[in-house]
Design a protein that fits this description.
The protein has 588 residues and is of the alpha/beta class. Helix content is 46%, strand content 9%. It has three domains: 2-130 and 333-525, TIM Barrel; 145-265, no CATH class; 554-587, no CATH class. The chain contains 25 helices and ten strands. The strands form two sheets. An eight-stranded parallel beta barrel has the order 1-2-3-4-7-8-9-10. A two-stranded antiparallel sheet has the order 5-6. Helix 15 runs parallel beside helix 17. The longest helix has 30 residues, at 236-265. The radius of gyration is 34 Å and the shape is elongated.
Length: 588
């Protein structure tokens, strides 16, 4: 069943004279009463709004007015700097989880139909390198990342970062040093130490092979000073007896130091530039190795979207981008973070819904029959295509995984076409690329004039191109399951400002819903869809007659006519201009 509603607006954006009507959730909930709808999406500006005096009693009165509501949770658009669910920073993970848990509980207690959050407004991955963060990292379930790597089944991830087993690397390096001695170069060690240097450069500033080479160089110089002679001038037996055991030991210590130092880095309160990237890189490798459904489905569907957006097949697009392997080990794939970061972001959100370390979201959601809804996010200018989890296709796979694990509809999706346009997503192509049942988890639509300059929130004129555009999108989505089922599906106009922020939008949306329920294809929409009656006072014939009757009204009082043409010459006409200027031959 489709339910049309409006958003309440926020206290922070209201004019001084209007602020009283936004001072609290109960007052916001009453906004819809005079707008022709019985559903309002309440914009939550702060978790402190749940401390409103007698809130439960006030909201009961609202429901007695036959008004139902959903909660749009805090967002940066409202000026709230709340922690995001896809953060790998321990403090953000913990605070974000606890804050949303409180919002879910409070929303359920007052009878909300859903709680909606933006999927991700975290610092975009590509610009984390200029963002200072503590490097106390956690895995997707909130467990310390160091503990996650130290699990027996995850030891291979440390080997992957190091480029080999810590027990085997030192011997291989030492043999290479014996061969090259002072001629040992970074490239020589790269043949042995196949480390992930895109990570090591984040941690120590150089590649791991180069760091080890420098350590060896230091010990050789130190031993030469101790012997008082350069290595080349010493007899081979002295080198073997004096240098070999010390250098071999130094290599062993160095490799272990780098390994332990890396693990310490993952659990440090010191500030570094973008350590969250390290957690994302390793989680991506782990998901890939585990054949995680989120990894496979999100990566594949994202590649398909970008391929279709350029008119190519997936294979053609991958060749064009130079991607040989859909793996974090492939540099071209790894550099295109928009292909795989959404999978890791989704895994962290999944972790919040399945973790045993923190409070259980699912229990609250199930108790109040109040799904958590992920909305397509909105980015600031210059960050349009960098968000971590932007595409509803990606959210579909996350919702499917969470709901399968939970055994009930725990997670839903909200599509905001204005937001999608603003982050350079084509809504029509997104819907086309969704699976055949891709619309079934879409529980909320934010509908407004589809402007790419979000947040525009411009009203929808009845009979407009914007109304038709929205209908085409929703008709496509309905073919993929949107609105099919016993649940409520919400189509919400998010109001802007001004004296009449709604205007004809509700009428336009009601027309959309009426024809969606009749399953009328866009090309077969009649004039009634556009607000044109086929009979009676508003019929086209009657309207044409009225137009013809009044067509010359704008000319009243503007024409001065001469006597010989119209058989009169008024005094006012004589005073205003000489009749001889209006001779017929002069007007030809």
């Amino acid at each position: 069943m489709f339910t049309v509603g409006v958003s309440s607006g926020i206290f922070g954006a209201a004019a001084e004279a209007e602020r009283m009507q936004y001072a609290g959730l109960s007052r916001k909930a009453q906004y819809c009463i005079t707008k022709g709808v019985e559903f309002v999406q309440i914009d939550l500006e702060s978790v402190s709004e749940f401390k409103e005096p007698d809130l439960k009693k006030s909201m009961e009165k609202v429901k007695q007015m036959n008004v139902s509501f959903g909660i749009h949770s805090e967002t940066r658009a409202f000026g709230v700097e709340a922690a995001e669910l896809d953060s790998a920073i321990e403090t953000d993970y913990k605070l974000g989880h606890e804050r949303l848990f409180e919002i879910l509980n409070k929303s359920g207690e007052i009878g909300s139909n859903y709680v909606l959050i933006h999927s991700s407004e975290s610092e975009p991955f590509p610009i984390l390198e200029r963002t200072l963060q503590p490097s106390y990292l956690v895995d997707y379930s909130g467990r310390g990342f160091r503990d996650f790597l130290n699990l027996k089944e995850n030891q291979h991830l440390i080997d992957w970062v190091l480029g080999g087993k810590v027990e085997e690397i030192p011997e291989k390096i030492f043999e290479k040093w014996k061969e090259k001695k002072k001629e040992l170069k970074e490239e020589d060690l790269k043949e042995i130490v196949k480390s992930q240097d895109f990570i090591w450069r984040e941690v120590i500033g150089v590649s791991l092979p180069d760091a080890i080479r420098r350590r060896i160089e230091d010990i050789v110089e130190s031993l030469e000073m101790e012997r008082g002679e350069s290595l080349e001038k010493l007899p081979e037996d002295v080198v073997e007896k004096f240098f070999y055991p010390r250098i071999k030991r130094r290599i062993e210590i160095s490799v272990h130091d780098f390994r332990d130092g890396f693990l310490d880095y993952l659990q440090s309160r010191s500030l570094h530039y973008g350590p969250e990237r390290t957690a994302y890189f390793i989680t991506a490798k782990w998901m890939e190795d585990q054949h995680d459904p989120l990894w496979h489905n999100i990566v594949e569907s994202t590649i398909e979207y970008f391929a279709k957006s350029t008119g190519m097949t997936k294979e053609e697009w991958l060749r064009k981008e130079g991607i040989e392997k859909k793996s974090i080990d492939d540099a071209n794939f790894r550099d295109r973070t928009y292909l795989w970061v959404p999978a890791v972001s989704a895994k962290y959100i999944y972790g919040h819904l399945t973790t045993e370390k923190y409070s259980d979201f699912k229990k609250t959601i199930k108790e109040h029959k109040m799904p958590l809804i992920l909305e397509t996010p909105m980015a600031g200018r210059g960050r349009e295509e960098w968000l971590r989890l932007p595409n509803p296709i990606q959210m579909y796979w996350l919702a499917k995984e969470v709901n399968t694990q939970a055994g009930f509809e725990c997670l839903g999706i909200a599509m905001d076409f204005e937001h999608m346009l603003s982050i350079k997503l084509d809504p029509e192509l997104v819907i086309d690329c969704m699976p055949e049942d891709g619309g079934k988890f879409v529980r909320v639509i934010h509908a407004g004039w589809p402007s790419p300059l979000a947040p525009a929130h411009i009203p929808i004129p009845i009979g407009s191109e914007q109304q038709l555009y929205l209908y085409k999108l929703l008709f496509k989505l309905a073919k993929k399951g949107f609105g099919k089922g016993e649940e409520n599906f919400y189509i919400v106009f998010e109001r802007g400002g001004g004296p009449d922020p709604i205007q004809q939008s509700i009428i336009a949306l009601r027309e959309i819903v009426k024809y969606l329920e009749k399953d009328v294809p866009p090309e077969k929409l009649g004039p009634e869809f556009y607000g044109v009656e086929t009979k009676g006072f508003l019929s086209p014939e009657r309207q044409k007659a009225i137009i013809s009757e009044h067509a010359l009204d704008p000319l009243k009082g503007l024409i001065i006519a001469p006597e010989e043409e119209y058989t009169f010459l008024g005094k006012a006409a004589t005073e205003k201009g000489a009749p001889e200027k209006w001779k017929k031959e002069e007007l030809k």
